[in-house]
Amino acid sequence: MEPFKTLESRTVVVARPDIDTDQIIPARFLKGTTRTGLGKHLFAGWPDFPRDEGARVLVAGPNFGCGSSREHAAWALVDYGFRAVVSSSIADIFRANALKNGLLPVAVDEAMHRRLVARPGARVIIDLAQRTLEFEGARVTFAIDPFARRCLLDGTDELGFLLAQQNAIAAHEKERAC
Asked: CB-hemisphere CA count at 13 Å for 47?
């Protein structure tokens, strides 16, 4: 997975509230277990989805990613090219799936959310190290789990993090051996 440091991108805006995981990637496309190829089916049931293949930030309505715990939703967003989803609220299970798959969920306050929704295609800068989103001269901070943040900054997932600790784990086990 590509490390996430600073992202400067145009936005795609889908302001509908309560976009669930079945809308993000309809069930009829869940026949495989690979992470690739799902991006072409992103929002397949929405003929009006504003496709912009250069944009890497999706600005969504409140309660984004609600519904089932479908990890394929995060896979489809990443495969399409998104690296961040910004909303005023993001469903907890979707947030966890996104973080595990290199997609940064950013919850912003209502005022910033309204500004972003009103300007589709605008440029934003997301700095993960500083935990900030900058838009038209305004800067807001966002919360993120410290371990998830570390993994995104390093471009790894939980398993990759553990595997990178093999030497330390072996040393600890040797030290504790009876």
From this structure: 0
CA atoms within 13 A on the CB side of 48: 4
Model pLDDT for residues 70-93, shown as the tens digit of each residue: 899 999 999 999 999 999 999 999
Whether 126 maps to a domain, the answer reads yes
Q: What is the mean pLDDT of the chain?
A: 94
pTM: 0.91
Which residue range is the domain that position 61 belongs to? Answer: 6-176
Amino acid at 2: E
Contact in structure between 96 and 70 (CB atoms under 8 Å): no
Best CA proximity match to 98, nearest among 119, 69, 124: 69
Q: Write the CATH number for 11.
A: 3.20.19.10
